[in-house]
Design brief:
Layout (H helix, E strand, L loop, with lengths): L1 H12 L5 H46 L2 H8 L10 H8 L1
Helix pairs in contact: 1-2
């Protein structure tokens, strides 16, 4: 980045910088921008992969919990083995 800044400063000082020199500086800037975008994309992909991994780990841990722990985690109404006899007895009476 420092080299690019020096090149830009040199171009500003030299009023008669050739178009070729200016083009080279612009191409260097473009390459740096592309490199930065690639780095940002890699970081975003890494964050997304970490989040997915954490979610999978959480689901796996919950799947390994005994039913009594699942009831506490999700509430009785959402428990997979919730007792539905109470509603059946209310209807029959």
């Amino acid at each position: 980045m420092l080299r690019l800044q020096l090149n830009e400063a040199e171009l500003e000082v030299a009023e008669k910088a050739s178009y070729k020199q200016k083009l080279e500086v612009l191409q260097q800037q473009e390459e740096l921008i592309e490199d930065e975008e690639e780095q940002e994309q890699k970081e975003e992909d890494a964050r997304r992969a970490k989040k997915e991994s954490d979610e999978l780990e959480t689901r796996t841990a919950q799947a390994l919990l005994p039913d009594s722990e699942v009831v506490l985690s999700f509430g009785i109404e959402n428990a997979p083995n919730a007792d539905s006899k109470s509603s059946a007895t209310t209807r029959s009476t």
